[in-house]
Each structure stands twice: as C-alpha cells, then as structure tokens.
User: What shape does this take?
Amino acid sequence: MAKQKPDLPQGTVARLRVLRDRLRALLQSSRVHGEIDEELRFHVEMRAADNIARGMAPNDAHAEAARRFGQIAYIKDLSYDVRGGGGLEGFLQDARYALRGLRAKPAFTVGIVLTLALGIGANAAMFAIVDRMLLRPPAYLADPSSVHRVYTVLLRRGAIRTTNVGQYARYVDLSTQTHSFSQTAAIAQQQLAVGIGESAKEMIVGTVSAGFFAFFDAPPVIGRYFTPAEDSTPNGAPVAVLSYATWQTDFGGRSDAIGSKVQIGTANYTIIGVTPRGFIGVWPDIQTSYWIPITAYAGTVATSAPWLAREKWWQTYKWGWLSMIARRKPEVSEAAANADLTLAMRRSLDAELHESSRTSTAQTASTRAFVASVLAQRGPNATPVAKVAVWVAAVAAIVLIITCANVTNLLLARALRRRREVALRLALGVTWPRLCAQLLTESMILATLGGGAGILVAKWGGGLLRSTVLTDTTPTNVFAGSRALPVTIVVILIVGMLTALAPIIQARRADLARDLKSGAREGASQRSRLRVGLLVFQAALSTLLLVGAGLFVRSVRNVQAVRLGYDTEPVLLVNRTMRGVRLDSAQLMDLRRRLVGAAAAIPGVVNVTERSATPFISHKGTFLFVDGIDSVSRLGQFDQNVVSPSYFATVGTRILRGRAFSAEDGLRARRVMIVSEAMGARLWPGRDAIGQCVRLDADTMPCTRVVGVAENIRNQSMTDDPGHYYYLPSDQRYMDDAGLFVRVQGSARSSVDAVRRRLQREMPGASYVTATSFADVVGTQTVSWTMGATMFTLFGLLALVVAAIGLYSVIAYAVEQRTHELGVRVALGAEARQLIGMVVGQGVGLVLVGAAMGAVGAVVAGKWLQPLLFNESSTDPLVLSSVLTVLVTVAVAASWIPARRASRVDPQIALRQD
Assistant: This one.
C-alpha cells in the first residue's frame, strides 16, 4: 500500500500559495498582465451584453459598460497587486528609477558612496577588533556566562593590589577549599624555544592543567588531550598538544605528527593530539602554538632553579606565575562565589604566613577574592590598549554619525531641488506611501553601495588596525570568524533608513500649489533649518574628535620628552637560555666572560655590560634593612639590578653624585651599592645618601655602603613609577640569570642579527641567545598613547573632511538659492569682497556654533579620558585653541568657492531668474 503524504496545515498551504503567486507574478509578469486583461475584457463584454439585451445600441452598451465598470487601469493595477506582483514590481521600478537618477549625477553618487564607505568601513574594522578583545567569548567555550577568571585583592608592601596572577599552591587551595565551582583550571602562557639547531624558534606555549580542555566543546582533531595523571606534581609527563595552525604549517597536517617528539624549552615532549581549527583557549589576542601540562613546565623550571626544587614549587607561595579559571555551578550566584572564594583565600593566606613564620592580621582582613570575565581585557586589570580601543570604537561610531548627517544633508539638498518634481508626481496621483518607498529605495541603494565599498575598506585597513591593537595575533582578515559582517549589514540597513528620514519628512511637508510654481526666489525663503542643524551637529562632533586627537598627540610628545633614565635606540637587549645544559659555577663564569668579550669585539659595538634585571620586563629585589627604619618594605617596592662596572656607560644612566662601580669593587672589597635619587630621598630624607649603610637579606648582614647616586629610571610604569632602584656590583652579588646590554653605533635594530649570530657561536649544546632592540621593548609601554594619537587623528581628519564637504554643500546650495537676492545686492552697488565676506562669514559662523558645542562636550568627556593621557590636561587650552583654528581655516576654505561664485553673479541674469 502506498504511503500517504502528510497533510500540511492550512496556514502553511496558504503561505505557499501566496509565495507561488508572487514568484509567478514577478517571473511571468507579461502573462499575468494578459490574464488580467482577458478577465477584465470578459467582465466588460458580459455587462455590455446585458445592456444590449435590455435594448441599448451596441456602441452605447459598450460605453455604458466601461463607464459603470470604473477606471480600467486602476483596477488592472489593483488586480496585479492582489496577485502578488505589485509590491515586487513596484520595488524594481523604484530601484530602476533611483539608479537612473543616481547615474545622472555621478559626482553626487560617488561622493555619497565614498563618504559612507569610509564611515561604515571604519566601524566594521573597529567592531571586529573590539568584538574579539572584549565582547566575543573564546571559541568553543561551553556556557561562557558561567566561566570566570579568579582575581585576588592583597595587601602587599603597604598597598592594595588586584591581580589574577598567583602560585600553584594558591590554585590548589582555592580549588579544594571552595564549593561554588564545578570545574577549575590553572593556566599560563610562556614564550619558549621550540625545536633544535637552526630550526629552533621561540613560540607561545600554553601551560595548562589537565582540566583546562574540559571547559571547551572542542574534541581534538586527531589524538587526545593529556590526562590528570599526566599533570601530576612534582613533574608532569612530557606530552604536548599541537594547535591546528602549527600542525598545518610545521607538520603539513600529517597524521603521523602524533607520536613524534619536539623539544620545548629544555625538555623533549611527545605530541599526543591536535586542537580543532580556531581553538585559542582563553587568550583571544595571542596565538598559542603548543599546549603542555602545567606541572611538566614547572618541573623543568625547578630543575634549572634549585631553590624551587628545594622549596617544593607546588607547595610554596613564593613563585607567582599562573592564573586560575573556574566554572560556577548553575545554582551559585556570583556574589556567593565571591564570598566562598574570599573565605578560601584568607585560609590560604594564613597558610602562606605560617610558612614564612609571619603574621599579619591587617593583611588577612584586607584580602578578598572574586570572579570576573574570562576575557582578561574586560577584567579589573584591563590594559591601557584595551581602554583606548573602546574609546577608538566610540570615535568610529561618532564618525559614522557624522557620515550619516552629511549624507542626510546631501540628500536633503537634492530633495529641496526636486520639490517641483515631487509636487508634480503627487499631483499626477502618486500615493504618499509609494513616494516614501521610492525615497527609501534610493537611500538603501546608496547605503548598500557605500556598505559594499566599506567592507572592502575594512578588509584593507582592518589588518593595519588589528596589528596596532592586537599586536600578537596572526589573522589579518577582519571578517574571519567574527560577527563583523552581519553587524555591518545591519548598520547598512540602519544607515539607509536614517538617511532617508529627512528627505521623507521634507516631502511630507510639500505644498503642491507653491512647489509647482517654485523657482529660485521661492527657494531662498525655504532654507532648511534641518540642514543647518545637521551641519552644526557635524562641526560639534568633529571638534570632539579633533580635541581627542590633539590630547593624544600631546601625550605622545610628552612621553617622548620624558627622560627614562637610560638610552634605548643604540642599546640591544641580549638574553641567554640554557636549554638542558648544566654548567658549574666556573664554567658559567667562563661563558659569561666569553659572551662579553665576543660582543665587545663585534664591529660597531661601543660598550657591553652584564645585568640581572631589565626595566619593564624583569624585577628583582631582596629584604633591605636601614638603621632608624623599622620596615623598609612599608615605604614601597625597591628593585635591584646586579651589573658590571660598564653598565652606566653602556645604558647611559647618569651618576649624579659619588661614583660608578669599578674593577676594584671585587669580592674581597668593601660591599658597595648605588641608589637612585628617589630611593635616597625616600630612605634618608634631608640627608646625603652617600656613605649610608644598608644591610641586604637580613639585619645581621654587614653594611653595604652607598657610593653613588644615580638618576631615576622608569622601571615598571611610564606614569607613576616611584623610581626606587638600586645597583649592586656583579663581582659582589651572585647573578643567577645574567644577560647583556650591548651599546652600538647608530640604531640597535640594524645590529640585531649580527650580534645574535656572533654570540650564538659561544653557546654550548642546544642553548641559544636572543637579541632585541631595547627601543622595541620600551616601545610596548607607549602603544596605548601612540594608538590613541593615530586613531583619533585618523578619524578626526576623516570627520573633518566629511564636515567640510557638508559645509561646502550647504553654503553652495544657499548661494544657488539666493542668486536673485545676490543679484539685487550687486545691482544696488555691493562689492565682490562684501559678498565674499557675507558668504564666508555665514560658513564660519555655523562652524563656530558647532565648535562651541563640541568644546563643551570635550570638557565634559575629558574626565573619563584623563586617565588615558600622559602628563596632559583634558582641558588643555592650547589644544582647544588649535582645534578652533583648524576648524575656522577649514570653514573658510569650504566657503571660499561658493563665496567666489556669489561674487560673480550677473545681476541682469539674476534679476530675470524665475
């Protein structure tokens, strides 16, 4: 028996029939029109036949039938609409009409499309960046709303600090002593050497606990992830998981990658799996190449750092290097989770204080822990780059608003010029909804063309923006895996509707009698206040953006003018990594001497020095004891650097008083140190630091005498660094991780490869050296100000150009509409300079009104922008006056051409103009 097809619901059947009729009316319009004509003819003939049957003559019968039937054309259109063809065909007619009109005005069309392309493209690119950095949850993360990073608030050296970096022991405490989470994981990223020999290169490696992958719905492409048994203390198993991108580039996507071995850091790891394409963990702005057990990494570090092995790294609270993520149970609120975490954190802190044989009631009482977004840039420790990115996104939105205002202004001007055409169409029977549909269609076509061009702009410029903001990420396609494309489409629709609104309102106010006979003289009395208001609005927003650009540019100049306390351009930073090579103290000392000697012999090298710490990268310190001060640590953080005698000449740090280190400051000589000027003033206010006694490590140690005072340096921050820094001679203090500063002639960037290749010859086994320009290291600290200056200036200039186009169009239209008035003025003796001054004054006046409004807005917004500036007031009068000067100059330039046209009006032609 044949199986019966299920009956469809009546509503579905009706909708399918409507869809069928609409498609047939659109695709077979001539046939449908023929059917309608035949049906109408049939009805008229039947009525005529009835009239003939009642005794009327045939001609009279047909005439009466047609008269009684009504307007054939109207009924025909109505029937076609009922059959589903009217709406679609009407849209196509409106589109063809709009395209013909736009093609007739190519300059007008191209100007609007380019304007929209810049505004929409800038917003598409910035949305993709902000979406990836702050809005979009990490790929494959299951139930993102329940996953958080864990932050702690601690009292350290007299200051309250919020951090998401802690110790493995702390992670264990918070995982085992809380009840609010169903999953926890420890995470960290390291830059480690991968491979051996010539192919070795530093890559980003994710060190995570075994539970990390359970946070994601991301089964491996091939192989497996590591298990808890492979992530156990004290030494995890040497297994690794490949990222999909690295699998493709380094292994050609071959399945035999599973089981192969690769050296990561100082150990050989066996590859056991590959993550799926697009898996990034919880770091959306950094590409991770390998994933290894966090205990395997810590175990190898402890091998090369004996104190970690001695302290049992998984139990000590002295090594803070990882973060914690956690998944909240469905029934637990964030407030409850925070309370649970805080209680566990205080218990953990008590264990830490007990370990160090210290007690601090104040420290425990001020301690708390809480959960925040899994995206670090949305947390309490968001970087300045992320904060500036939000501002830049807002700036891009303002540019889009200015763009919409400008396009609306241009369309409104066109609508005013087409008043007579609109009135004629309404008089001929065009309905108001149909007229609105036509105006909306025209705006939507322009918005679509501008949006399409804007997508190309975003794809071209998105890579530049992404490399500026997300400096460590690889993909450059702004639409790759993001929501930017659908959001851009929505923006295009919104822009199309917004820009159509003003022309529709203008058409709604049409006066048929007046507009049908309107000419230039009547037009002069109909100057659009809306157009003027839009222009003032553009000027105000442009002022806001240009003030922001000026403030960031001034911040960059202030940063560049700051004396860091050392030179950067001619200095190279050289680090050595001992990969699996164990050297005794004599061998290590010999290697250090050979590296210094080899570097000094390189042509172009001026000076070489050893150092144990690097500003903005590594910070070291120890306990200090000074007579008369009960606790030096309460006065702030004091960082140390162990250096060789040539240090100050190499990096350019000046000795203000006393002396630098010399070859006589050896192991058997009197212990000496050099302190920064800020440190000397902090420890011995009102006294000279030279000759003062400081005991290092313990108050029972012998005195270390201050023999010099050095200038302050920027060590941890460009903004609020206290400058507490001191130096110890390398011959008197053990250097556990010595590196080099190399000073060269000219820029250090050109010497990176030569220095690295020469020093690599001295490294034993698989060990290697890296060389980096010190200017590039310090430059990362100024990215936020540089990005702010670049983006604000770019968008500010774009807004200024768009506003200038709007001003030009308004003034030019006003001159055109006032041709008769200007002719009368010329006939009455007005001079050209008077007309030019009048027109230019009108443009400058409008811009000044907008600039005043924008300046007020800039002052109000300045209190939020102020924390992102460097030594710059958000109400800097120089910036405000400079922006005002620029705006007035642009206003004069934009008004000059229409003003010259006004000055050349022929009074005879103008007076005869209708």
About this structure: Residues 826 and 907 are 6 Å apart (CA to CA). The chain has four domains: 22-84, 144-374, 384-560+783-912, 571-779. Confidence is low (pLDDT under 50) at residues 1-6, 472-476, 519-527.
